[in-house]
Amino acid sequence: MKWNHTKSISVKLPILVIVFYFVLSVGYEIQWYHSVWIALVVGLVAYILGDYIILRKSGNLVATIADLALTFLLTWFFVGTVRDEFGGDTIWMSLYVALIVAVVEYFYHIWLLKSFSRKHETIKNRSYRT
Fold first, then answer.
1. Tell me: the pLDDT tens digits for 49-58?
2. Tens of pLDDT along 59-112?
3. Is 99 in contact with 122 (CB distance < 8 Å)?
4. What is the pTM of this model?
5. 21 φ/ψ sector (left φ>0, alpha ψ -120 to 50, else beta)
6. CA–CA distance, 120 with 76 (Å, rounded to integer)
7. DSSP string, the chain
């Protein structure tokens, strides 16, 4: 299956920026630019590990669980670093973000698999005439 990385990332990153902004900046008053760069870093790492490697080999459920864990850990680390506090609210906001991202990722994975399997079938079934 051939992946269109530009299309995949251009769909994933804006969604994550919106989720992170609303949960972290609006919900917990983290500076907006911290929410954006955390979302971009988490999104790129999750794309490489969760979407490109795990999703192709293990399927949607395993990739979604991996994205949940990865999002929680990275968000906890980065928000903890920004706030200089790794307990209490930092854990809860990381958990909220990770749960919302897991739901979004589940449906994103469905779209990703359908989108690229359709494209692959179209290319495979095409007849070439010279």
1. 998 899 989 9
2. 999 999 999 999 999 999 999 999 888 888 899 999 999 999 999 999 999 999
3. no
4. 0.84
5. alpha
6. 38
7. ----HHHHHHHHHHHHHHHHIIIIIIIH---HHHHHHHHHHHHHHHIIIIIIIIHHHH-HHHHHHHHHHHHHHHHHHHHHHHHT--STHHHHHHHHHHHHHHHHHHHHHHHHHHHHHHHHHHHHH-----
